[in-house]
## 1
Amino acid sequence: MPIGCETDPMLKSVTRPAENRLTADYAQYRSARLARVEYDLDVNLDDGPESFSGVAIIRFDLTGADDSLSIDFTEGTVASLSVNGRELDPDYNHSYITLPAFALRDGPNEVRIVYRHHYSRSGQGLHRFVDSEDSRVYLHTHFEPYDANRLFPCFDQPDLKAFYTLRVTAPASWQVISAASAPRVEEADGQKRWHFPRIGPISTYIFPLHAGEYHVWESDADGIPLRLFARHTLAPYVVPEEWFRLTQQGFRFFQDWFDMPYPYGKYDQLVVPEFNIGGMENVAAVTYSEKFIRRGEYTRENKERMANVLLHEMSHMWFGDLVTPAWWDGLWLKEAFATYMAFLAQAEATEYGDAWHMFYAESKQRAYEADQLVTTHPIEVPVEDTHNAFVNFDRITYQKGASVLTQLSHYLGHDAFRQGVRSYLARHAGGATRLQDLISALETASGRDLAHWVNEWLERAGLNGLEVELNCQDGAIDTLLLRQTAPNDHPTLRTHRLQLGLYRLGENREAFQSAVIPVLARGDVTPVEAARGSFCPDLIYPNHDDWGYLKVHLDKGTREALAQSLPRVPDPLLRSMFLQSFWDMVRDARLSLYEYVDLALALASSEDADRLLLQLTATFDEAMHYLWMWPPDADPERQAAARRIETFVGERIGTCQPDSDRQKLWIDTFLAVAHSPEAIERILAWLRPASSSGDIRLDQDRRWNAVIRLSALGAEDAEELRQRELEADPSDNGRRQSLAAEAARPGEANKRLWLERLRDPEADLSLARRRALMGALFPSGQYAQQAALAGDILDSLPAVGRSHEDAFLLSYGAMIPRLCREDSVARLADAVQRYADINPILLRALRIAHQEDVRCLSMAALSAARH
């Protein structure tokens, strides 16, 4: 029932909607009334395969007892409720329990709730998984932002940090893992009773409970106990030495950088099945997706990505767990910072010294793309409720936030930035903070007023462009101007601390010359007086070493020089940035895709840096995506360009040492771009016995990728290969991949069958399997099937938004058809207007689909006109 009358004049009552969400207004009201929250939890995990039961005793101090109070508890069953010793009939609407004012009192209160809740199959709440290979059971929790109340009734908001005492009943063969160290364990009648000591203060969304027959490895990091968990059938593929080595390196780095010891007693890491995201920073019991475990040899790229996520989650133990954002508008305070810290730790404490190049080529590009979408938003944005919090778990929050923090570190100086962070953590340890708390600490450490910086970078959206205007006289620079631009929708011109790079080409890389000039760019035009008299450069880049967050538009002279000389630039990061500028021009319809393909193929033929090859192959994949979408009769060069990419990639496979990382990269790229009958035959040969496929040996994960690609291309033997592969790999991953291969097969009837099944809430499919189906249903090249179902998908959006959880909707939104035709653009524009009130996750995806369809048409028109 809604909250009623007004209480204390300082506490204005807030009405809570009877829905499965928590509003910012009510969270603030509840926070003002509550203090000293404590949970005493008793959970029974051996109470049947469908649900678990529990008893929650909640103690808290209350101000304003003349108003009712709600306790969050979504879609459970309340067996009994008592408040301060008084038994009550539960007032429960399946979203929250309302405690009546007459049962409450100012000061200490105690609530006792006996409850039951079903296990999750969506990855949110307490998720239950049964391994199809050995029937072992595995549980893990995932609560961010508002799902702790699916495990136990609670005040599920980040600023109401609490202490927890936990007891768990589970089968005797299970491990049970939570935040606290050294539980006392009793065994009787085939069960174990786990007693975890009191721990806190911890926000509800990072309080963990994981359980099951996990395989466990143990180590330590200078006295910090370490454990690693994975399910038994995956254990042979885990490399615990790699996990522990990175964990030890991370702890040494972070404890020194933060000038603060690790704040919890032990550190567990669990690789869990059907996990929705990459990793989650549960206090002292971090969870990771099984995608980081490969059933074959790990490449350096695999290891580097795993290291980045591992360090990201570890840094959260300080920044996010020990000190926590008070509400979801401060999401960037933890996610952007953890992203920044992960790359910093990789670069300075591990073997991955070029981590900042990875940051530029991947993380920063995701931020740039997101910041140019119609859905961009400020880093610091109001969040009206927990439902909208999920919408903002995006590339602005993570990647742009981290990019801006990187820029801020350069702006303030690294020492001042670090000292500010140290002071912030020391002052607010155990608490919940707002943005101004961090800014105040940085201002004190640096002696700078950051109000203007906050306004420019955190409170306003958009990406600035920067271009150089150069005038030389007698071989020397006469004038050099930096011209800054901003999009019409977000016209802010910002302050940028940059390094301007001037470069002179030589006969080879060894003869390359450079000069670097520090610049503080402001407003629309910044004259660079320090450049006057320097040599007239062949190439200019106004963001040398990637200090700034901006989009560089290459000047005409640099573009023309690079067309023939890009391989002669010696620094891999600089080559990467120049290459990215050309790709940006393609996406902005300022350069023909065919011209880019020529440039990229020429560079790839001689490129020796793995990071550049990863960047190049990613653009080959994306280029093929556009080529397959463009109208087939509009441009005869379209098919020739696609064939050139496929042929080149196929040839590179044979130039590599067998089983090398580089050969695997080209194989993966070939599986993405293959489309011709000859390519189909080549992939088929790889799946035959090793003796018939030369030096190509595919591990199990790549074999499935090959089967899925053959299915998508309609290969004659694809169905037989799928069945044979499933017999060889009946694991859970194999079953998901088999479903993906079935969904990838061409044919409108097949697509419609799987589309109906995956969006049926009652279908016997976990979220992980639904997402596998959605990811494979419309591969590049299946234009006709997607066009035939475009109307069906758009018409389904309102109902799907009402009947599925947010994690499902993120994948469903990615299927909204972008067909690169005038009628498709018009249909999407109409849908944006008609469905303005649908679930915000789907509306966001719909608006992006329309914008990207417009982009695709512009790219196609330019490339056709210039060829």
Note: The CA atoms of residues 658 and 695 lie 6 Å apart.
## 2
Amino acid sequence: RWRSNSGNLILLNFVFAMMLQLGLFYVSSLINKNSDDYLLCTVIGVVLHYSIISEFCWMFVIAVLQFKRFVEVLGGPPKWILLKGCFCGWILPLIPVAAVFLWNPNNYVNGNVGLCYPSDLGLYLGVWLPVSIIVVINFVIFLFIVYSVVHRKTECGDVVNNEMMFQWRLAFLLFFMLGLTWAFGFLSELDYGEIFVYLFCATATLQGFVMFLFFIVFNLCVNKSEDLSFSGCSKGCWREEPECRFLQSENPPQCPESFIDSSQPNMCYKISNDKSKFPPKCPFEDVLPFNYYKDVIDNIGPVWMPVRRDLSNGLGFLQWIEASSLYKTEFKKKTPNGTYIWSHSKQEINYTYWSTDAVFDNGLLYGASTPNGWILTEEPASCCLFEKNVEKIEPELKLMFFYSTHNLNLIVTNPQGLKRVNSEFLMYCFTDADARNLLHRYPSLNQTLVADNTIIFTFELHKNGPGRYWCEAFKNFDLEVVRSNEILFRESAYFYYEFMTILQVSYSQTLVPFNPLSSDIINFLEEFFSEINSISYLKDNYFARFMKILDIDEMKNEVLINIHLTHVSKDTETNHDEEYQSVKMQIQKAIQDTVAMKIEMVNFLSSDYCMETIALQLTWPTTPLGFSVHSKEYCFKSDAARLTSLCAGDFINGAQWSVTDEECEIFNRSSVTQTL
């Protein structure tokens, strides 16, 4: 943090130039006395010449900074001060050095001071001239600064002594830092020069020592930017004393170097700027929840946000995936002010805190937060981390259904290997059997048994319809997700027929803020579900359930959704095909009666049977899911085998006939024998 300040970096460059000059003085004296190698002496002389001019150029840069600080107070520091300082301190000294070397390289060897150093005209024009110009300019700046500080209006009479002490300390420090002691060196060439020789030798050698006293021992008061802090005076009284952030803290740091002290007890964290594929390959074992590090985004830009869309079963909602109590809950937040527009359709949205730069695309899976709002990214951004030692134990989750109680039991083996927060396991169970949610997360699990290495939890089945059940937890060592086996519960004693319809819904007519990839779509379809319940047969015998989002067309404001209809009555007098046709007609009627929105039926399928259909002059009879069947016609392939078709699909997406490209020839029944 101290090195991030431009003024401190300039000070470091100045100290480095001063160290280089002192070291080369010593090396130059050794080479001149003990070697006849003129080439080596010339090289050392050139570098020594360069280091001296560089040191004075850095003194000039410091003088300009102090002038801006104490004289032109309102002007602020110059722009690109570090870049300009490096140009002045490291580039400009090359001009006099190159001029002396090109004029006469032997000038560095023929010196009469016992050093590899410029002599004669090279000494006067290459060293004395630029040094004297800088010393004169620095002296003028020094006078301006002292005058400005001394004549600063002070109304606080009881602290005049402190003000005078500050003035003397500042003048003393600047006298040495700006190289004004070299004025004694120039005056030594006049009469009574011996006095100035002693003064020059006594003061010029103290430059580094004085800087050590002021910047280390006296430890000036600096603010958060590592600049000198000052106290103001108003109406005869000093204002509140400024907070000092000393370079050497009175208390030892609680966190290792490069780590930041957290507001949480006994916790240090650091920000990693490395990006990786999901999940982030962080250098430590655990990751802070997003709520801990969301406030640092103003300083470091985009930050990985542990949310993503689950595309394993359609276009799922944006969900939290971090190891916290938010796991797999919907990610949504109303923006308190302002509105945004979609990047493509330019339609106004104000249901979340999306940035105006956000692009909504199927390839962008990961959420990130920026100072301008939320965005979607192809890869996760950086994350905040902390380290802790954890014993690695492999846990196991096993889900079982008990017919006696009609409950699901979750058996956890080696629970020590699961992550806990406030003594509670970060473990959740889910189902897609809920009638009003794409994914239902059980709020809590009932613990029924605790053994040495086993814990059993119990939770109830959903009565709204059939569905899948599973549980997930986080490992304590690396936060890897542990998933149980999956159970599909669909007992004929509870649920009989299962149909699904694909609907194309237009949401362009909605007057309220609407997000088709959130639970807003479920609320939007409430009228349609009400129309279904208004039909007495459907109300008495079926549950309508929103299962998945298949696709979304942002340009047309249309969304393709999957709706399931579950038969919950035990008594039925119709067969499957008759029930299929009856329910299909009644759903079409419900769509026609829904006037507040535009809905179109794209398909209507059974989850258990592929319905009888005619394709390419072939009639395929009603067939159970997962079975292959011959067409009613006798159609033979070139290998004399009858053509078959598979009833493919699954419970969620419905049963559909597989497409076959094989050719066959149809024979009349009269020309076909029953046996070969």
Note: The longest strand covers residues 542-553.
## 3
Amino acid sequence: MQNLEELFKKYYLEYTSYVVKDRAIPYIEDGFKPVQRRIIQTLIDSDNGSMYKVSDITGRTMRYHPHGDSSIYEALVNLVNAGYFIEGNGNFGNMLTGTEAAAARYIECRLYSFAKEVLYSPDITEYVPSYDGKYKEPVVFPSKLPAVLLQGVMGIAPGMTCKIFPHNPLEVIECMKTAIDGGDFQIFPDLPTGGLIDVSCYDDGKGEISIRSKVDVDEKNRKLVVREIPYGVTTESLIADIDSATKKGKLHAVSINDYTTKTANIEIEIAKGDWSLDKELESLFAHTKAEMKVKDLSPMLIVNKHPVIMGISEIIRFHAAYLQDVLRRELEFDHGKLIDKMQMRTLERIFIEERIYKRIETLRTQEEIDAQVREGLMAFKDEFVRELVDEDIENLLKLPIRRISLFDIEKNRKDVEELNKTIKENEDKQRHIKRYAKSVLDRLAKLIPKSINTARKSEIASFSVISVKDLAEENLQLKYDRSSGYIGYALKTGDDLFMVGESSKILIVLKDGTYHVTQAQDKYFAGKNVAFVLPADKDLLRKTIFTILFRSKSTKVMMIKRCCITQFIMNRMYSLVPDGDFEAKFICKDEEGRLTIEFKTGRIKTEQVWLSDFLVKGVSSQGVQLTRREVEKIGYRKMNAEDKPPATAEPDLFSNG
């Protein structure tokens, strides 16, 4: 059994690691999940300016990606709809209406040039063998922009999640330029579907965000017109919500018409009568997805092969530094190529002008030829750009006779001058890498595909999310009928408790110490041993102190516990009495009171204690011992704090009094 447990642990850890690193969580360097990176690489391999069937690209991607074609197809469609790197032709669906994309055989795609500018730099990209060893695929692309912030991402892995909203590309670029200079900046999401966003709890991408539809109020025609919707919501699902709210009487719509095309346009006609359009608008926000709060944002990325949660500003600062590193490596590689080219032009001139090629015409062996060329060139070593290597000699010996005979010294000098100029420019960029990085960002800003609307779409505003509770009118009298055990607002008999609404939550505490929270109903069976019924308002419950006395059935030891109920799950049964052989003997909800305990045996028959003598602890605490003697009777009287007598001072044995 031990071996089996270890085997399960090993396999689960391997599976978890695989899902996190190879499927669900994007890498910080290029912001892609592996399937997205493999799609981009496939399109780079195929890029000739032509459109390709999505089914074709899906099949080719399977050379790198060992999963089914459906995951590749879905990822490719999402990349096209994001609009930055892949251009689509055909029906790729509609994120506003929820319309799905056409089958892969009917739609086409190709890379935007922007994708190559941002991602493609093969000379400094690390490649590894594909899963079957037949091909090479990039570990990550050396991206010049944080694609994870441009496109946004959603990913779920065992025990973790990645949730990042899209951001405005021009704002991302400006923040990167500020980060390069070491300045401070703030950046907030810019959602493709627009709407109003409240970012007061955004916490640099690790908190929450409230999103509200933009709705025009047409008083003349008694209409609410939804112009922009929350990100992730479709007009189809929103209309279904509106229809459901209307059937429940929460909204008073007589017609709902969807005129959505490239922008949302849902017209809701409100019934004539006393219904205020402002109230109907509040009901729309409260009872549908026209307004929503997105919690638990999680900017988790793979950093150095490990999942790490980073703030959005941290991601931008990382990419500001990473961009400089990428550009420096590109410049260094280009510099080496330029030096090689300059060396070759210099050696060509010496080789031809000094007629070194004539010295090898009668030589027989390769060793003799190489030695003669090297000897002839070394006489002019002061003109070399770098040290002479065997590859230089090999390249000279490959020069065709025609090129030697038509050698133009003036053209050679112009080439050398141009190369010198380019080398100096390269070295200047390396010396002033920050300035160069900002100029690259400015150039990329101009290359953003026209499919991307670079104007800000989401309007930052301050508002409170309207909940059903905010609109609920508590005008129903809740009653408890002890004889039948029913609680409800439709009961004709019973004790009046408090006013509730249809969506109100109530806390029911039984005399045995068990409790649960449920929604107020017209008639609900709770039993005949109910101790308390309270509104399940967490602010109220934080101020309500429950005191419970419980006894061990075996040892007869009496325990006491004081606590507040602050957390619960609807309709789940809990207990104030700890697990074990305990039974509840007394329960109250007063801040102060006096307990009179009568014992079965002993010289002292009674003892009085005050509730405030015991600390208020968590609901899961085990309580403290009240007495070890067997209790015959418990008396209780509610008191005020000022009724409690002052504590008697301990006698001081060393006082002179």
Note: The radius of gyration is 38 Å.
## 4
Amino acid sequence: MDRKHFVLPVLLSLSVLTNGVAPVWGQAADTTVITADMHHLRSLDVREWSEFPEQAEGASLQLEFAGEPNAKEMTLLVRQQDVKQNWRVKLNGREVGALVIDENDMVLAFAIPPDTVQAQNTLTIAAGGTPRSSDDIRVGQIALLNRSRDAHLQQATLRVELVDQDTDQLTPGRLTIVDDQGAMVSVGAASQGELAIRPGIVYTSTGRATIPLPAGRYRVYGGRGFEYSLDQQQVQLKRGQQADVRLSIRRVVDTRGWVACDPHVHTRTHSGHGDATVQERMITLAGECIELPIATDHNVHVDHRPFAREMQVQSYFTPVIGNEVTTRTGHFNIFPVALGAAIPAYQSDVWRETLDHIFATPEVQVAILNHARDVHGGTTPFGPRHFNEAAGEMLDDWHVGFNGMEIINSGATQTDAFQLFHDWLALTNRGRRVTPVGSSDSHDVGRHFVGQGRTYLRCDDRSPGKVDVGSAVRAFREGRVVVSYGLFVEMQVGEGQVGDVVAVSDKLPPVEFVVRGPGWNKVNRVRVYGNGQLLLDVTEDQLGERGELPPGVLFRARRALPTLRNDTALVVLASGPGIEGVYWKTAKAYQPDSPEWRARTLSCTGPIFLDVDGDGQWTSPHQNAQKIVADAQGEVAAVYTALPAYDAAVATQAALVLHQNGVNPLELIGGVGFARLGQATRAGILAYVNAWRKNEQARGAGK
């Protein structure tokens, strides 16, 4: 078979279809089924995901079918799955639309203009332009209906009310509508007023929505983001019928004392890409229960307050002016920005110059390094050409002047969901006080939706429309945060909470942690790290011993910590499986480096800083390493004599300091002295040497 074109002549009756497709398409008398199957296409030769067959049917789909010339508009229905690139749909050489760039399973409805259908027809679906990477998709279950698009999509009406159980009042939220095959369906309305609409998704800012739909059987989900329960109801709609549905949800995840912040929010209006207008963004922010959204369109300062008032959602959140300062060598989200402030210069490739301009911008106190493992402008900031991942060291004197970094970006997830988390731990060991960040990077209404990745800030959340921005920024800078992507974990050591320095020189208290989440998610692992080293690992079989827990609490435990050798930054990481339900689906990797994919949800805390040596402050592993090397006057043997009293993180930093003092890293592992070290110390030194080898290989290859 020619992989470039998969050609299939077809003319089928409706009877060949599986149950669930026919009700949406209507009666056979006005329906031409072009294909009842789903077809696997691939834009290039390399398989994108291992869940797809090794061999695709082709790079495009070409279907031939008989018909009759149309004097009036007709409707073409197409089901699509896992679409990540631009795929164009043509009928008899005439472009009638494009598949939606969205990995979700959905049914699209295209208007076919008069005089397009002929006696013999060719339908083609092919990747548009020149694809830069492979895109494995499924497309099919295609039918041509002898009725206009509006006539098909507006056969019946669904009226929905979304209610908060605790107040019995209508609440903003998200409605997700799927057919009985689980595919999100196109609806017969566009965004207007209080509604933001995409195929299968309706955000409502008022809790009410009137939704035209084709006749058929549907399941309707109602929710309001991560903190809320989910309600659902099945409904059968007949032609000409109006049905009423009332969905009831409640806030089950207790985040009192924490403000839900999404520090990476875009609109098509101001960034020029994606699909969410600024008015739609206001509706989706209320619908996902984000209380402190930061406007971060590219190289522009945007004030969302007038738009929030326009859409009458100003009581649900407090907008903050920000900017994604977008350069060729890195993207930085900055906030808060004074109204009317000049745009910081973004033309330089030198981080120090860029960050100096950023912090010279009036009122700016935060600069977040975004998606550090992604390629933008030809640069991967935390790739091996620029970053030693073991020691948290930027190479070539790249200035670490940012004070936050994304460890989860729900719109640009990593193949290894925990890679950026470990990068952040390495930066902390290096002595950088950088706050971990969760964000959505949302440009869209439905695909990578706002607020899925988020950061909770420790401050007063009782009035979402009047959050004290100064207190929120202070909490961010002090690291009093929880990163959330479907879970919410809190930690305490004695009386010490996230961001505190806790003296533990006399007696080490146990660590207490609680993992929260809605009933539609779960946790299957909790890990406690000290200076980046795994101290405790609570696995799924142990999590089963959780006893009776209130709604919204997935796990709670108290655990003794092992003996600590030196000051320690303590962090808890909770993780669970990805969410497959289309009502809050977790996305696949944005720039995958493997065809294997395992979706995850996660949450982590900022550090609690344990003062083990009793000097009243936290001393980083890098500071300890500097002192050890200085006391040893740079002699490797003397350094190795001192290192066993410290943890592996100090050993890694000592290897960095020795290398910076002129010692070849290979000499650190080549002698008898290294072989005589304890396992943890050897592992710490070897981690640095292996990361250095990656650096050398990448820099030699020019990557």
Note: The two ends are 37 Å apart (CA to CA).
